[in-house]
Specification:
3 domains, homodimer, eight-stranded mixed sheet, 18 helices, Butyryl-CoA Dehydrogenase, subunit A, domain 3, globular, two-stranded antiparallel sheet
């Protein structure tokens, strides 16, 4: 599509042809069928095109601002979300018992992605609200669910996640927000909170009637002392407005002015400048981080979807531009015909690379969503845990690279604000940072999910990759399959070394491991998609070109990207002290 | 330094210890000595700190704007450049016969870099003016030099380069601006120009009394027909104001609103909306592109310096932040001490990588400037020609990556406009685009400088690398030297294949070649610098740490970066059609 929104053909290929969501639904006796899904995705497309895309630029130009302690947001954002609410979209992924539409995560996220290609910051309000409501639904009491989750599921209220503090970003163990028990009421144990929370997306706005903050804080023990580290962290529900309509003791201390992603406000919130903000404990004391982590895993895949969506739109806009922009001649023909720049080899390379990143990211995130849906499959849940840091990081890092390439394809025009690609680039730059930086994800992957798990989840991963390779060998993708098998052998070798290492440098180069492993994962998915594409010969020229594009991109990934994996893994296996031996004063 | 300006220690190391500029000056009987240079660089530092850095943010926030056909620029920019003019800085690199200070290019560029770390867009006005004046000095008549070059050398007037047109960016052969002969006068052959020029940096401003545009245009032959392609291009001097004080027929049709680098205006200029803009031919008809190219090579190294400077400042700001920001604990010690984030391995990795890119870029550009200075050394001139596309591209591409890492080190703070690193990132994103995109540079390198040159310049390069390896083997850098020798052997092998190829895919993957070759060049320079650092043991703890930092960064580059070179070169040698075989309709 000209506007760069995600194409139905791409989603159909991924959801129906590749992930076989129909089979899954039938096996699970779901009442949802393809017709229902198509209608829902179609609705999402229209909403994206008519209500989210039109203010893409305006929401970058006119940032949220503070007026008498209240954050004001562009009215177009409020209008888009109002429409979103009216259509019940907040409830898409919730069960019918919670008033939801009951779509599997795969489909709810596909719809989310459509809207995120149109306007990543406007749909961000929904991401947080849904995550908040899901957490309360899972760990909250019946009364808390009724009072705080349901109004978010129906989109009347919005939600936030309040984790970081100015002095504690990645190191949550050091948060200082303090919760003091006050009384028990029908909503549970009520506390008074005092502390400052930083980087709160949607921390305040004038869109929804109320805002439900989920706040990590520490409750002092009977001696009045805060438990050190993460074990002392509990989770509290802190509404902006209390049931009696009075404002809770939550103040916007300031707004962060970001490089991109500007439509969604980002606040420094002070809890308890006065008597303390009222907050109700969720579940048990000291369980806060565990509860939040369950949530954060979902949020991390959500970040992945966001990165994939923004990368996808940049890629599509670059393709459109490259097909239309006439410049230069064929360097071999040397005739006088000026050609569209897409015919220049280096432009083609940039488009192949960005396609491999963007569509590879999208496939990765949808694959993970399918794993989320396979809730009763133990292997799937283990694999999901292994792949989550990759699903967060690959779309963030390589999606950003896709946006970089989209600018480059546009040349000077891409560097101007007359085109959308520079904004997409700025928007996507957030994704390697929030919900756990790339460095944090790499420690999670190598330290927790590989070494800490003694390679158990890795075995499940390997089994699935081998299955794909078996299929590939049978249908003309033999050399790619052989290559991937080789890479997998090396991965196994390297992981064996790392799992059995007692060395202090084992984790020192974990981000190189994440990049290498991520490339193996995405390479595998591309091969898996190429198998589907190859087995689907179509007489329709347009459809066949679409399939050929998938096959060509898989080949590109295998020739130009996958070789990075071995290079990086071999480096990590050396447990080199090239980084760790460097002293602070050398800088 | 806290402000991230380039440190004297770095420049001293590069200029005196590594490049031995003093030896060079003595051999060339120059009157310039170290004392003079030190004073000049010190002056540049003060100017950078007191007049360029203070409006760094403001020049991003308040863009140039158009008012009644006149571009208005932030007054702080004008004030900084006024001071720059008063100190005679425009003339630094010009010979005394032209009223210049007579500094070698190495030193003039070192000073430029100091100012570019402080404010890349303000100093941009100088880059263009100096380039313009140098071109006129080289190809213009005596009267043209006096009339148009000297006022730029003394900084009274500024200059521009008008190459691109809306429909012709990288493909200059297709420019349509038309020059019609009018009369001969004391300034030479006077023409009337009509056409539109796009992307003109400094195309209009209210800082200098006059603006001298150097404009590429085509003069019709006697049948009134424009010669097709680049052979028909000539170069014209088109002043904003004519000698009689009247305004020439040059109109600002619009301003481009850029993602970064906003302090310098970027204009669409219409030449000849009325009777035609008066312009004087430089040299002979049809020589325009050749003349401009001589200039462009200098400008390309200038872009490299800009990229290096912006990367350098981002790196230094990240180092400062990482030393001060306390977060998390040592993952192996597991004690309760919160540490500065620079002690986390992944942060150290990011700082090492950005140091290797930023300081490697700076070394590369200064090395090339030294080659410029070795004007009578044929080998040096050939090597300069070979290295120019690398000096333009490595600092642009990897300097940008350094700026990306600087944001990442800052975490969420780096994504806000309260810190400088996000602006540096936006500023540097221009560099892979202007003065020939990375794709264009890669065709220049592989097509013209390697294949077109039958590998002659490459031999000179190889000779110098081998010399470095010889020295390295003697002083405890044997394994790096052996590795580099291996890589060089592979480079030779790959180039042999490419030079002798008749294949249409030879140039198809040239950008991978450029990246691989660039890494070899920078790896070589790091090794060369490590030799100097290793041979300079110092009792002063601070100095020794500085030297150790250089050695550690060289090691980092060899372990973590150089392996990319073989991977990329091996891919290029395959002459794969993985990219070129992809059809437009696949996208």
């Amino acid at each position: 599509m000209k506007n760069g929104l995600i194409e139905q053909a791409d989603l159909n290929f991924l959801i129906y042809d590749w992930l076989n969501i129909e089979d899954f639904l039938i096996k699970n006796n779901s009442e949802i069928d393809r017709e229902t899904i198509d209608a829902f995705l179609d609705l999402s497309h229209k909403l994206a095109r008519d209500h989210f895309l039109p203010h893409f630029k305006k929401s970058d130009q006119i940032e949220p601002y503070l007026e008498d302690g209240q954050v004001r947001v562009l009215k177009e954002i409020a209008q888009a979300l109002k429409r979103y609410t009216e259509l019940g979209m907040f409830s898409a992924g919730f069960s019918e018992s919670l008033g939801g539409m009951g779509f599997p995560s795969t489909i709810a996220n596909a719809a989310y992605t459509i809207l995120a290609t149109a306007n990543g910051s406007t749909i961000g309000y929904s991401l947080l609200t849904v995550a908040n409501a899901r957490l309360i639904s899972k760990f909250g009491s019946e009364e808390q669910i009724k009072q705080f989750a349901l109004p978010q599921i129906n989109g009347k209220w919005f939600g936030t996640m309040c984790l970081s503090e100015p002095q504690a970003g990645s190191g949550l163990g050091d948060i200082k927000t303090k919760a003091t028990f006050e009384e028990k009421d029908e909503l549970g144990d009520c506390y008074r909170l005092k502390g400052n929370k930083m980087w709160i997306s949607g921390g305040d706005q004038d869109i929804s009637e109320n805002i439900i903050h989920l706040v990590l804080a520490k409750a002092p023990n009977k001696d009045g002392i805060l438990t050190a580290g993460t074990a002392g962290i509990s989770l509290f529900i802190v509404p902006k407005f209390l049931r009696d309509g009075r404002k809770n003791d939550v103040t916007v201390a300031g707004l962060n002015h970001k490089m991109g992603n500007r439509g969604i406000s980002n606040c420094l919130l002070n809890f308890g400048e006065g008597e303390g903000a009222k907050g109700w404990l969720v579940g048990e004391l000291g369980h806060g981080l565990r509860q939040m982590f369950m949530m954060m895993n979902e949020a991390r895949i959500g970040v992945g979807f966001g990165g994939a969506a923004v990368a996808y739109r940049g890629h599509k806009l670059a393709v459109n531009y490259a097909k239309e922009r006439l410049q230069g001649r064929d360097i071999y023909k040397r005739d006088d015909k000026v050609i569209p720049i897409i015919e220049h080899s280096d432009v083609k390379r940039m488009l192949l690379a960005s396609k491999s990143y963007a569509e590879g990211s999208l496939a990765l995130c949808l694959y993970c969503s399918k794993l989320v849906d396979e809730v009763n499959n133990v292997d799937s849940q283990k694999l999901l845990s292994l792949l989550t840091p990759v699903a967060k990081t690959f779309p963030a890092e390589f999606g950003l690279l896709a946006n970089d390439l989209a600018i480059q394809v546009h040349g000077g025009y891409g560097y101007t604000r007359d085109f959308d690609v520079e904004q997409l680039y700025r928007d996507n730059r957030l994704n390697p940072i929030h919900e756990g930086t790339t460095g944090i994800q790499s420690l999670d992957l190598l330290g927790r999910k590989i070494i800490g798990d003694s390679g158990e989840s890795l075995k499940i991963f390997t089994k699935r990759v081998l299955k794909t390779c078996d299929q590939a060998i049978q249908i003309n993708l033999k050399s790619d399959a052989s290559y991937l098998l080789e890479v997998m052998k090396n991965l196994e070798r390297v992981c064996d070394i790392l799992i059995n290492s007692k060395d202090n440098n084992t984790l020192a180069n974990s981000s190189a491991f994440l990049t290498g492993f991520g490339h193996i994962v995405v390479g595998w998915l591309w091969l898996d998609m190429a198998i589907v594409a190859l087995s689907q010969k179509d007489e329709d020229q347009y459809v066949q070109s679409f399939l050929n594009g998938k096959i060509a991109t898989s080949r590109y990934f295998f020739e130009c990207e996958l070789p990075k994996a071995d290079m990086l893994l071999n480096f990590v296996a050396k447990k080199s002290d090239v980084v760790s031996s460097v002293k602070t004063e050398f800088f």
